[in-house]
Amino acid sequence: MMKKLDIYMTKNFLKYFSYSLFSFLGIFVLSQVFKVLRYVNEGQLSPGQIPLFIGNLLPGIIINVAPLAVLLGGLISINIMASNLEIISLKTSGIRFARLVRGPIFMSFLISLIVFYLNDRVYPGSVVRNRELRGKEDVEEREVPKEKENAFFRNVEGRYVYYMKKINRETGIMDHVEVLDMSENFDKIERMITAKKGRYDFKRKLWVFEDAHIYYPDTDTVEARAFIQEQKYMDEPEYFISLSNIVPKQQTIAELKKAIKEGSATGNEIREILSELGKRYSFPFASFVVSFLGLALGSHYVRGMSILNIVISILLGYAYYLVEGAFEALGMNGYLNPFLSGWIPNLLFLAAGLYFMRRAEY
């Protein structure tokens, strides 16, 4: 019996989830029509490219409306059962509400996994393709700068850090260099090298520091040298300069992680990238989180609930987006960890959902 009940509940949920998803898709696609027509008038798109451009918009729209569709699908499917007295009958027979909605909750988790895949594998490519259709240059194709001022690079494996006033990656020349040799835990300076110039020997693959001084903090002594050339300092000049102006939305999770690693090593600002990485992991599971709210709030029958369902789902959905935006801003401004700030809205709405699930038992 329970297996048939799970199938029945799941089919109802998927039915109204699909209706909601396609309804929201239609609304959001229509909202983009005027923007597309403006691109055509400005010469950024040709009429023949319109279907492809709109097709590339779909992954992003699906990702954004999936939580709303899950919320509304859960509200409608459970409320219809409640209006037919099915929910109260099943509760009276001794079946807990949490057991009744196990199938829809499991399906919402699968929906979250699908959204996760779209968000990582499909959406970044669709953004890039639409930029190309509009004739916009992709950031990844821009030339890496030849020079960088106030550069920084950390070699974790070698346990040393470079600081320099300027570096040219083509000539391999550094000006006013500091190299800090760190302890194994990176909590103590064991040796500090200062030099007026650093020159990369492309044949021997190592740095040669000219007019250098070595300071030993433990003994508080300084040693002057005309040249310092040690095999450990073999980091190529290209490592010191990287593109810091990548567009995070155009990157996959793997590319975001790579950008964070390179940015941390070269001293580039990575808060925006960290925030985007956190959203890539957290936002897809908003569909799973809000399913608890939708199913619980739809469990009590109220006359005229059909219109109220839509209002509730839209209000709760936009409440989630507002909370998410607020915590994202806190993360970007340094008040919270930008990666973890994406998960706080999920935890808050999950707590609210579990609370209403408990209330739905009675």
From TrEMBL:
Membrane topology: Multi-pass membrane protein
Keywords of this entry: Cell membrane, Membrane, Transmembrane, Transmembrane helix
GO BP terms, alphabetized: lipopolysaccharide transport
Pfam families per UniProt: LptF_LptG
Highest rank taxon of the organism: Bacteria
Subcellular location per the Swiss-Prot or TrEMBL entry: Cell membrane
Ranges that cross the membrane: 16-37, 57-80, 100-118, 281-298, 305-323, 335-357
Protein's recorded name: Permease, YjgP/YjgQ family
Species assigned in the record: Fusobacterium gonidiaformans 3-1-5R
